[in-house]
């Protein structure tokens, strides 16, 4: 008899626990909807991140393509005819500075190279006044400068 009472009490306890643990169909549906909404939000966020990454890569590809085109344009400009080593030094310095300006990877570096271009132009004027280069050298170097600028603009 005690065994039967214990068995029925255990059975009743199990039934109560099972019925308390089971959710109603409405609760199950609400939990399922919440879980589906979370999955949809995660998928949406992942799609947005993927889209942003693709846009960034496309923009980087355009920038590098433009840099390559501008570098090729400058490389295709023929060297001017110059009379002395000082003029050749200024021409070389100008060409390297244009390439550095094109390849600048920050605003600060670009501004610094723009300043360097102005400094070179001033140096050309000073060297002409000091007689270190001829007027023809100055004209040829300045024509090279304008050809560089025109080639860069055409490439972009």
What can be said about this structure in brief?
This protein is mainly α and 156 residues long. The protein has five helices and no strands.
Structural notes for this entry:
With 156 residues, the protein is an all-alpha fold. It has five helices and no strands. It is rod-shaped. 10% of the residues are buried.
How many strands, which pairing sense, and closed or not: the largest β-sheet?
A: none
Mean pLDDT: 84
Number of helices: 5
Distance between the termini: 98 Å
Helix content: over 70%
Write down the overall geometry.
Answer: rod-shaped
Could you tell me the number of beta strands? Answer: 0
What is the succession of H and E elements? HHHHH
Low-pLDDT segments, ≥5 res: none
How much strand content do the residues show?
A: under 5%
The computed structural class is mainly alpha
Rounded to an integer, what's the Rg over CA atoms? 38 Å
């Amino acid at each position: 008899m005690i065994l039967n009472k214990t068995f029925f009490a255990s059975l009743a306890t199990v039934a109560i626990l099972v019925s308390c643990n089971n959710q109603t169909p409405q609760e199950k549906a609400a939990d399922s909807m919440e879980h589906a909404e979370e999955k949809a939000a995660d998928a949406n966020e992942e799609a947005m991140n993927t889209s942003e990454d693709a846009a960034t890569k496309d923009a980087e590809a355009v920038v590098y393509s433009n840099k390559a085109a501008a570098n090729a344009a400058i490389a295709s400009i023929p060297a001017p005819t110059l009379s002395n080593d000082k003029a050749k030094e200024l021409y070389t310095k100008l060409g390297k500075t244009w390439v550095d300006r094109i390849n600048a990877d920050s605003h600060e570096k670009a501004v610094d190279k723009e300043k360097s271009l102005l400094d070179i132009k001033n140096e050309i004027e000073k060297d002409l006044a000091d007689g270190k280069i001829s007027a023809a050298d100055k004209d040829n170097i300045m024509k090279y400068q304008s050809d560089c600028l025109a080639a860069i603009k055409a490439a972009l």
